[in-house]
Amino acid sequence: MSQMPPPPPPPPLGWCLLAFSLLLGSFCFSLESAALDSSATDSLNVLLIIVDDLRPSLGCYGDNLVRSPNIDQLASHSVLFQNAFAQQAVCAPSRVSFLTGRRPDTTRLYDFNSYWRVHSGNFSTIPQYFKENGYVTMSVGKVFHPGISSNHSDDSPYSWSFPPYHPSSEKYENTKTCRGQDGKLHANLLCPVDVADVPEGTLPDKQSTEEAIRLLEKMKTSASPFFLAVGYHKPHIPFRYPKEFQKLYPLENITLAPDPQVPDGLPPVAYNPWMDIREREDVQALNISVPYGPIPVDFQRKIRQSYFASVSYLDTEVGHLLSALDDLHLTSNTIIAFTSDHGWALGEHGEWAKYSNFDVATRVPLMFYVPGKTAPLPGAGEKLFPYQDPFDSTSELMDSGMSWTS
Ligand SMILES: [Ca+2]
Q: Which is a Gene Ontology cellular component entry for this protein (predicted)?
């Protein structure tokens, strides 16, 4: 008697961000079907928030140190994925992958140097699909990776109804705007700033929030539903953030990575020597050996402090954006998707970078809020996303919402 074959293995964990595309696609399909039954104005809007280099160092993922009350609040009203992984821990291949719903071995983009429509296939993107189905599609900040990987146009005009917005202060990110201990300005990795003191008196993510809110106000009275993608830059290096956020993380509270050693027998191909942080003036001054380092312990604490402070700064920008969505009474008819393009190693395995295949570099936060599905519709005058102040130590921890571990 022949035996039944064993059941197929579960899908690999890296499958999850492709599921992201499929989920948004299925929402879109449902919306399209709904639109056939009623007027287009009944279709749900979509707000897609993409963060740059954010690993799940967030309260809603069980991190007890990081203060992220606004993202936690979103998670409490969302389906929260516990095992979501980027297809590749590099910006452009990851973004092109989940925005087209195709793996890098299909888009044939593993770096930054080609445009999929001419290099591999004329694949549609998620925003393009919404645009072709009656949505006004808008891009703010870093959604596609800039450069040839999105044809120097963020894939316009295919993906967007009008030209994407980029914050004007982005051009200062890698310039000498960080006040060093010598009182002079440097291009540092660690860059807490007095916002009033930097060029233009603002930071890119602040400008992106302002532009996104301006677009939401404009779309509130639009006859068409909208798809708004907002791409935040922090906590991508350099850690250039308002200096007050450093106070949330006293150095004496900062622990080191639990496994800070380069693993014995690690093949060199599995390791990245974090050259992009070595280029910064404050890291150069440490004269760290290539390729393995290590970084002095006190500087390791400072890197972790600045990463977490950047996450809390990002969290306040997300808070202002979602609070505005509430104020405009758009919470009851807008799906919110939140994710990151990949993670970042904070000293684990001796790494201070993305690029590797360790889970700290590939795992990402992923959550979906769907009005009336993942949380009850807000009542009259009720706000689902009131702004949460991370400096208010009395603010209660949010419950973490529904979790999916698949
Ligand atoms: Ca990135």
A: lysosomal lumen
